[in-house]
Amino acid sequence: QLQLVESGGGSVQPGGSLRLSCAASGFTLTYYAIGWFRQAPGKEREGVSCTSPSGGITNYADSVKGRFTISRDNAKNTVYLQMNSLKPEDTAVYYCAAGIWGRPCVPDDMNYWGKGTLVTVSS
Q1: Would you write out the chain's pLDDT as a tens digit for each of its 123 residues?
Q2: What does the H/E/C string look like for the chain?
């Protein structure tokens, strides 16, 4: 069964850090672009960061540039999102998704999705 599982979410104070993990089972992430997306209550799902299959190409939403870092360990079939200097507006459910490299890294073009992990940033 093809599956993505996110972990690492939780509650943190503003300025804190979390590292999210996205582990795949049933297929190899090596051949896929991986994106992190988030959805806050009452808002649409938005892209946070994407990485190419090799990890050599990454991009970030303007709102997280300089604070978040996406990385991948293909040997462990896992992708990470290091989140630093967290702000209350980063509060959301974070999802990872796998898609075909070369297609836009947007929700409609991703093939496999995890169920999400909740990140809450609050004092």
Answers
A1: 789 999 999 999 999 999 999 999 888 998 999 999 999 999 999 999 999 999 999 999 999 999 999 999 999 999 999 999 999 999 999 999 999 988 889 999 999 999 999 999 999
A2: CCEEEEECCEEECCCCCEEEEEEEECCCHHHEEEEEEEECCCCCCEEEEEECCCCCCEEECCCCCCCEEEEEEHHHCEEEEEECCCCHHHCEEEEEEEEEECECCCHHHEEEECCCEEEEECC
